[in-house]
Write a structure and sequence with these properties.
The complex is a heterodimer of chains A (231) and B (47). With 231 residues, chain A is mostly helical. Chain A has six helices and no strands. Chain A is globular. The two termini of chain A are 31 Å apart. The relative contact order of chain A is 0.17. The model of chain A has no long low-confidence stretch (mean pLDDT 89). Chain B has a domain of 30 residues. Chain B is rod-shaped, with a radius of gyration of 20 Å. Classes of the chains: A mainly alpha (231), B mainly alpha (47). The interface between A and B is medium-sized, with 39 and 29 residues.
């Protein structure tokens, strides 16, 4: 593992674990119940951070995609590969925790509401990015196709954010640009702490995943070089 | 209590998912590092 990524992982791992335990304590013991929804509202403290991390990961993917298409430097593609997989993980968490909240709140696991549907589209686009890399004839073609899909996935993010306004969806809106948050102070503190925890986890996972991609590329280069020597 | 069972399910999904993925990455780092070592021994280090 590279020196910087190794150090980042070693520093972030214990911080992430301690923050995870503290976040669990805050969600279960510190924060009060929401008056209307009761305990099920506490899903909000990790559903929303997971959604924000998904968006952040897609913006990292966007930077990697544009960087690769512009420069053809593999470091950008390595960043994209890592961000795609981790973005897909967090998007999966969003798509599982959302319906778990929706069942007691709306009485149904899933509805083809605008924000839910556009989030599912994002999940499919991220999965498609991974699939084109896996099945492309050569690495450069896979990277280029995945970069284009990565840019399209990034275009979906503002659509997800504005979907509730544009199509008057059912999805609740807690934070709106330019408006004061309606959250009680303990709820806001818990939310911000969970947000920080998810960011630390994201940094940790990204550092390890980028390191794996680099190691895999070095293996691939050695295999290609040795097969070239034989030929 | 019903609300709590939904909350527990959601919490399990999040933290078991994240910790399982982290464990999967750690195992993968080890496996790829071992493969790289083998390849480098076979061909000699190149970078």
């Amino acid at each position: 593992m590279d020196g910087f990524l190794r150090r980042a992982a070693i520093v972030l791992l214990p911080i992430a674990m301690v923050m995870m335990l503290a976040a669990i304590w805050m969600v279960f013991a510190y924060v009060p119940d929401e008056r209307v929804m009761g305990p099920v509202q506490r899903i909000f403290y990790f559903h929303v951070p997971a959604a924000i991390i998904t968006f952040f990961s897609v913006f990292v993917l966007l930077a990697g995609s544009i960087g690769y298409l512009w420069t053809r430097h593999t470091a950008w593609d390595q960043l994209s590969r890592a961000a795609t997989e981790i973005g897909l993980l967090f998007c999966t968490i969003v798509l599982i925790t959302g319906p778990i909240w929706a069942k007691p709140a709306w009485g149904t696991w899933w509805t083809w509401e605008a924000r839910l549907t556009t989030t599912l589209v994002l999940w499919l686009l991220l999965a498609a990015c991974m699939m084109v890399r896996a099945y492309a004839d050569n690495r450069d073609l896979g990277a280029r196709l995945a970069s284009v899909l990565g840019i399209i996935a990034a275009l979906d993010v503002p659509i997800i954010y504005k979907a509730v306004d544009w199509w008057r969806g059912q999805h609740p809106v807690v934070f709106k640009a330019g408006e004061k948050t309606p959250l009680e102070p303990r709820m806001l503190r818990t939310f911000l702490f969970c947000m920080a925890t998810f960011f630390v986890f994201y940094g940790l996972l990204l550092a390890i995943r980028v390191a794996i991609v680099r190691l895999e590329d070095r293996c691939q280069a050695l295999v290609e070089a040795s097969s070239g020597d034989r030929a | 209590m019903k609300g709590y069972s939904f909350l527990m399910w959601a919490y399990n999904v999040v933290w078991i998912g994240l910790v399982a993925y982290l464990a999967f990455l750690v195992v993968r780092v080890r496996k790829v590092s071992e493969r790289l070592d083998r390849l480098e021994r076979k061909t000699g280090p190149r970078s």
